[in-house]
Design goal:
This protein folds into 3 domains: 92 residues, Beta Barrel (OB fold (Dihydrolipoamide Acetyltransferase, E2P)); 201 residues, 2-Layer Sandwich (BirA Bifunctional Protein, domain 2), CATH 3.30.930; 126 residues, 2-Layer Sandwich (Gyrase A, domain 2). 29% of the residues lie in helices and 24% in strands. The protein contains 17 helices and 22 strands. An 8-stranded mixed sheet has the order 6-9-10-22-21-20-17-11, with helices on both faces. It has a 5-stranded mixed β-barrel with strand order 1-2-3-5-4. Strands 12-13-16-14-15 form a 5-stranded antiparallel sheet. Helix 4 packs across helix 6 and helix 4 packs across helix 16. It is globular, with a radius of gyration of 30 Å.
Amino acid sequence: MYRTHTCGELRLKDSGSRVTLCGWVQRSRDFGGMTFIDLRDRYGITQLVFSMENNADLCNRARELGREFVVSATGVVRERSNKNQKIPTGEIEIVVEEFNVLNNSEIPPFTIEDETDGGEELRMKFRYLDLRRPCLRDNMILRHRMAREVRKYLDSMGFLEIETPVLIKSTPEGARDFVVPSRLQPGTFYALPQSPQTFKQLLMVAGFDRYFQLVRCFRDEDLRSDRQPEFTQIDCEMSFVEQNDILQTFEGLAKHLFREIKGIDIREDFPRMNYADAMSRYGTDKPDLRFGMEIHDITSEVRGKGFAMFDQAEFTGCISAPGCSEYSRKQTDELTEFVRRPQVGASGLVAIKYGVDGTVKSSVEKYYTPEELKAIVEKAAAEPGSLILIMSGRREKTLTALSELRLEMGNRLGLRDRNVFRPLWVTGFPLLEWDEEEKRFFAKHHPFTSPLPEDLPLLETDPAAVRANAYDLVINGTEIGGGSVRIHDSDVQRRMFRALGFTPDEAEAQFGFLINAFRYGAPPHGGIAFGFDRWTALFAGEDSIREVIAFPKNNSGRDIMLDSPAEISAKQLDELMISIRKPAR
C-alpha cells in the first residue's frame, strides 16, 4: 500500500505516530523558514509541514510542487499550534520527513475549490477535475448512501432487485425513443427503455410479487435542470395491492431516507391532495407546501365593472404576498416583466396594496368602489400589509402563470428554505389528455394505467372525464416520483388502447406480448418509479441534477468532455446498411 492513512482520518489521538499519506496538492503556503501544503484526497485534507531548519533540501523540493501534483508524504503527526476548526483534521499536522512526487500536473483550467472560478461548460469539459471539488465529491458520496439505503429498505420489505433489458422495442407513446440499429437484422432498430414499464408488469405476471431496480432510463426530450437524456429511476412494482398499500409502502421508503440521510424523523402521514384541488389552489400538480400564498378565484368579484381585462377573461385569480404592501412602483414593474416572460406567458399584472392600516390602493381603483376592492381583499384571504397580485385570461394558462409568480414571490420572501421539507401525495389525475394537433387522446401517464373503477364506464362516452388510479410523490414543489395501479385485465387494456386511437392490429403489433401475458393469470398489481437523480439533488440542496451525476450531458444533450454524440465511420454505417441524409441548410 502506498499509504497508511487517508487525508481525512488522523486526529489528536494519533500524535506521535509515523504515517504515510497520498493525495493531491490543494494549495501551498511559503513562510520563508517553513512551507505548508494542504494535501487532499477523497476523504479530506491534512496539512503537511516542511521546515528549512530540519531539512532544507526537502523544504526546497516542496516549494516546487504545483497545484494538483500527486504526492506521497511520510512523517510524524503532531498537534497544530494554529488549529483550523473548519476541517476535521484541523487539530493536527504532519511534520514531513520524506516525500515523493507520484505524478506532475499541468495548471488546472479552474480552481479546484467549492467556490470555483470555472464556468459550467468549462467544468463539464474537465469533469474529472470538477469531481475533485469537495462539493461534487460530497454529492457522489450522498448518491452512494442514497442507493445503499434504498436497497436496504426495499430488501427489508421483501423486494427482489431484478435487471431488465436495455435493448427493447420502440413504442409510440411518451417521449421520443433513442433508437439503436441492428447489424444482424438490417433495417430494424432497438430502442433504449424510457422505463422498464412492461417488463415489471411481466415480472408480476411471472409471480415475483415484489420487484425493484435502480435502473438507467433514456428519453430523447428537451432538457432542463431536472432532466437528462439518460437518468436513473428507483423502479418498483407490487402484486395483490391497492393504491393505499402502495402509498404506505413507499411513504415508508421516503421516511427511511429522510431519517437515515437527513436525520429527519417524520412520524405523521404525508398529506394527500386531489389533482383538481392542487391545480385550483396552487396552479400546478406539484405544489410547494413550504409556504401558503394560495391562489384564489376572484372572477365573480371583478367581472362586470368596466375593466376590460377582467370583464373579458374566462378566469381571474390572485395570490396575496404578505409584508409587501410597501412595494415600490419599480418593484411591481419588475413583477410585471417577470410574468410577461415567455416561460410564464402572462399579458400583464394588476396589484392591490392592502396597507397595515387597512387602506386599499390600486391602479384599477377607478373601476371599483372601496367596498368592491375590500371584497377582493377579503376573497384573497389577505392580511394587512399584503400585496394582492392579480392575473386573468384562460383558466389553465392563468393558473400556470400564477403558480410561477407564487414561486417567484416565495423566493423573494425567503420562504423556500432548502432545509425544510414538505412531502405530499397528489392523486386523482386525469387518465387521458387531448392533443389538438393529432386530434386524439394520449395517456397522461402511460397506456397501462388503470382508470378509477367508478370512472371506467366513461371510457367510451366521456374519456376526458376519466380519472386515473395514479399518484405522484411531491416534495418542495418537485415531482420525486409517480406511479399507478396497472390494468391487469386484457379486456380493459383493449378498451384503453381504443380510447388512445389504436386499431386492434396496431395494439397487437405494439403490445401483443403484454396482452397475451394477461391471458395467463395476471395478478392485480401496481407500482411507482422515483427519479433517483432528482431525489439526490433535493437532499443535496442542488438546483440541477447535473450536480449529482458523475458525467452528465449539457442542455443540448452533449457530453462535451467526450465530444459526444459524434459521427461514425463510413465502414460502421455500411455494416448497419444505413445512409445519412444531411439536413438542409
